[in-house]
Design goal:
about 60% helix, 434 Repressor (Amino-terminal Domain), mainly alpha, single chain
């Protein structure tokens, strides 16, 4: 079943919220760790503000020293992302020999 980009993003947010709560980290504590106001975390979790890639990665590392389990859960929650991804593009040219 295909999911809209909005539904996929919401699934990612739900995973992040679940991991934050599992770690017993409040929005206030997460925000303080990241050096941002708590209102930003609230807006992100409610889908009112989109995360930038760097912010996403900083949140992952704030929630777990090894973010791979979080990423694995996100991938399981968003199988439609993989289904829509096309084959990797071929390299346009060979790497130079050193």
């Amino acid at each position: 079943m295909k999911r809209s980009p909005r539904a996929e993003y919401q699934a990612i947010l739900e995973c992040l919220i679940t991991w934050r709560k599992r770690a017993n980290i409040t929005q206030q504590r997460l925000a303080a760790h990241l050096g941002m106001p708590q209102s930003i975390i609230s807006k992100v979790e409610r889908g009112k503000r989109r995360l930038e890639v760097v912010e996403f990665l900083r949140i992952l590392y704030a929630l777990a020293p090894d973010p791979r389990p979080i990423l694995e859960e996100i991938l399981r929650a968003t199988p439609s992302l993989r289904a829509r991804t096309r084959k990797r593009p071929a390299a346009s040219r060979k790497a130079p020999k050193l």
